[in-house]
Amino acid sequence: MKLHRAIPFLLLILAAWPLPSSAQGPKLENVRVSFASFGAIYYPHFIAKELGFYQDEGMNIEIIAMPGGLATQALVAGDLHFSTSSGSSLTASLRGIKLKVVYVNLDRPLYRLWSWRDEIRKVTDLRGRGIGVASRGDTMEGAVNLLLRKHAMDPVRDVIWIALGTGGRLTSLLTRNVDSAVLGFSDSHLLQTRNHPVHEIANIGKEIKMLYTGLATTEELLVKRPELLRRFLRATVKGREYLKPYKSQSLALGKKYDRAPDDVRSANYDATMEMMTADGTEDLETQKSDIDIGRRALGIQKEIAPQEVFDFRLVREVYKELREAGFERLLKGR
Questions:
Q1: Which residues pair with 31 in a beta bridge?
Q2: Tell me: the pLDDT tens digits for 177-192?
Q3: Which of 42, 182, 239, 272 could bridge to 47 as Cys pair (CB 3.0-4.6 Å)?
């Protein structure tokens, strides 16, 4: 009778007793990833985190808010595993720093070129005029470089570049202190939905291709821990493929990270879908163009081969593996 009365007490003790680590499941590895912003172009990562795709791969993703230049320094120092500021990492690679772009989410920028001047209606009307960018040599300037060259203009001699900072371009345009300005998606959406006396000269992403956003890491991690990158890419690609058909669900998941108004996020989603690469890679000609833009901006004379900057082997393998397994089956129930 005494033993019978003791059994419930013993069961309570066993229930409270910590289980061995093996019974709790494998410990997740912390993986640190930087993000310069939290718009729809980064939703594949947020979706993969929220739906447990990274956890399935044995990873706990630490999302670090960090501008591209600082993220590249942190990547080099070993404080990050991956940076989504792939353009900044590409620039560092051209300077000889051992980084690689390993995945490209968008190969067309979400930039638009605006002006308040009635006489500036097309790209060639910018000859002799000022163009406002965030900073000299940045991705915005690189995108407009390609746009000008497409329209047979010289980016060095035909226009005047004006660095206005991150928040100064929209203000300078609306106060008519600059002839034209390159704006990102949110600012462009604001102008499109408000009655401001400005007009769009060009939707840059519709006209040119370039590295806009993706993923970069160190050559050391590629050599020493390729399976970590493979697992990270596998989860990211699942998030990416979920994003495409499930707009409302993706917007709901992304809202945790992206604080933009719902109408802006919805429009940003649509614009992102238009510019997204098919398989997380960039074609060879665009790779060469990205390198050429960077070399010109940095004044680098020597030739740099694409394989010194880009490495898409693992993302190609991951896409092949997941396509053969069937995305619909893999994402079912998420």
A1: 61
A2: 999 999 999 899 999 8
A3: 239
Q: Say which residues have a Cβ less than 8 Å from residue 95's Cβ, sequence separation at least 6.
A: 298, 300
Prediction pTM value: 0.86
What angle, rounded to 10 degrees, do the helices at 43-50 and 247-254 form? Answer: 80
Return the sign of the alpha-carbon dihedral for residues 127, 271, 38, 173: positive
CA distance 140 to 328: 37
User: What's the alpha-carbon Rg for the chain, to the nearest Å?
Assistant: 24
Percent of the chain with pLDDT over 90: 79
| Encoded tokens for 220 | 């050391």
Q: State pLDDT tens for residues 120-134.
A: 999 999 999 999 998
- The fraction of the chain above a pLDDT of 70, given in percent, is 92
Q: Which two tokens stand for residue 284?
A: 């060879």
Position of tokens 């230049």?
69
Please name the residue that has the structure tokens 């980084």.
99
* DSSP reduced 3-state for 92: helix
pLDDT at 257 over 70: yes
Give yes or no for a contact between 108 and 210, defined as CB atoms under 8 angstroms apart: yes
Q: Which residues contact 61 (CB under 8 A, 6 or more apart)?
A: 31, 33, 45, 48, 49, 54
Residue type, 37: S
Cα angle for residues 286, 237, 269 (degrees, 5° grid): 75
Q: Residue 319 and residue 236: Cα distance in Å, rounded?
A: 11
